[in-house]
Amino acid sequence: MPDVLPPLLRIHEADTVAVALCPLAAGEMVGTIVLREAVPQGHKVALQPHRTGDSVIKYGQRIGRATAPIEAGEHVHSHNLETALSGEIAYAPQLGEVSGVSDAVAASWQGYLRDDGRAATRNEVWILPTVGCVAATAEHVARAANSRHAGRIDGIHAFTHPHGCSQLGDDLAGTRAVLAGLAANPNAAGVLLLGLGCESNQLDALMEAVPAAVRGKLRILSSQSAGDEVAEAAKLIDELAEAASAAKREELPLSALTIGLKCGGSDGFSGLTANPLLGRLSERIAAAAGKVILTEIPEVFGAEQALLDRSANRQVFDAAAALINGFKRYYLDQGLPVSENPSPGNIAGGITTLEEKSLGAVQKAGLARLADVIGYGEQVRRSELTMLGAPGNDAVSATALVAAGANIILFTTGRGTPLGFPVPTVKVASNRSLAEAKGHWIDFDASQVLEHGTETTDSGFLAKVLAIASGEPCAAERHDQRGIAIWKRSVTL
């Protein structure tokens, strides 16, 4: 971090801890506080004494309780702070007018307008296997087709997975719903559903699960019924690519974007720089009547009340509360605590409790009004903010965002990850060290907000997002980092 920055940042006037903006040494004087021990960058320093059991406050909210006496100037982390989360909560609605939301901005981008009125940031052909048995076949067909059609469309990609057979009930239905949602995504101008033939996830049932309005862009092939399945698949892909090549980019408004919000490998800066940056953009897109999707439901535990209070009405509030408590019950029914988070990487980066992680994570949605709640595998239906039921796992939740209809994903990270998904995945670094060390992973450095302020940083970020939406390859696309993961929840036969 630049020397001109103060060494500690107190986020809210009520906070009892501050964040170290650079590594701090024992004995260093910060204002009136003498550091009693070394504190790594992104970690917390006590601003006042705490007794055992006292609440520790960050973001103006409780992030846990002290497990030992803490003196001012001490490092506050997992050795003296623990979660206060337990189980389900009977949430009380406190609904009112949503205030403080950004105005819409006059901005446009170049995208593809589909026949159903939705917009695409890419014009591609996708191959989706019904089952893992034909994954290698799908990849082979996609590689060959990309060579044949290079430059005609934005790409031909196979998105493989190991599921689709030996599944039962809701587990099989979830696999089918997500694949159907992926098939419906507007970035896919054409889709080949490639089956084996004997799998549980039968082609006709999968086809039926795809929204009727977009079934015309689908082709299906059963490998067991085909003669030479590779040759037959190639013919179908050629047909889809020929039709897709007629699409041209045109100027579209900000409202045509459907943004999926994601954070992964978070650190102590994620809630200070990158996630608030996404939040301000989310507010602008929501104000423009665009669509914003927030997921990773376990990573709202401890920060959910403010989100619930922004519900459009009591029906949305009740659905959101039920979704959150349902995820808590999912853990409790397995004999697991609801607070088994943060990850080892999060902890190394300065995040101690799930409350702290969640209070940073929910900032990706800013103050946008919560307009709808949808389940895993369902499609986004309304403008403004939608809460999507999916777990926190990076690949599973990002895949669910694409299946819900996101045409671009904004992905913040403090530790870094090369992961990319079927739609452009814009990686936003929370700290400068990551941005400089992993420039081949990162598209935007959010830490500049600490030096240049929100107005300059927000303007630069909006420009980057619109450029990528308009066709500029993101880092993940440049390095062919594109994949999916499906949420496996039940027994395997």
Architecture blueprint of SSEs:
Layout lengths: L7 E2 L7 E4 L8 E2 L2 E2 L9 E3 L8 E4 L2 E6 L8 E2 L4 E2 L25 E6 L5 E2 L3 E6 L5 H14 L6 E4 L10 H16 L3 E8 L7 H7 L8 E5 L6 H16 L5 E4 L4 E6 L10 H14 L3 E4 L9 H5 L5 H19 L11 H5 L5 H8 L8 E5 L9 E5 L5 H11 L3 E6 L11 E5 L2 H6 L6 E2 L3 H21 L5 H4 L15
Parallel strand pairs: 12-13, 12-14, 14-15, 17-18, 17-21, 18-20, 19-20, 21-22, 22-23
Antiparallel strand pairs: 1-2, 2-5, 3-4, 5-8, 6-7, 7-9, 10-11, 10-16
Summarize the model shown.
The chain has 493 residues and is α/β, with parallel strands linked by helices. 30% of the residues lie in helices and 19% in strands. The chain is built from 13 helices and 23 strands.
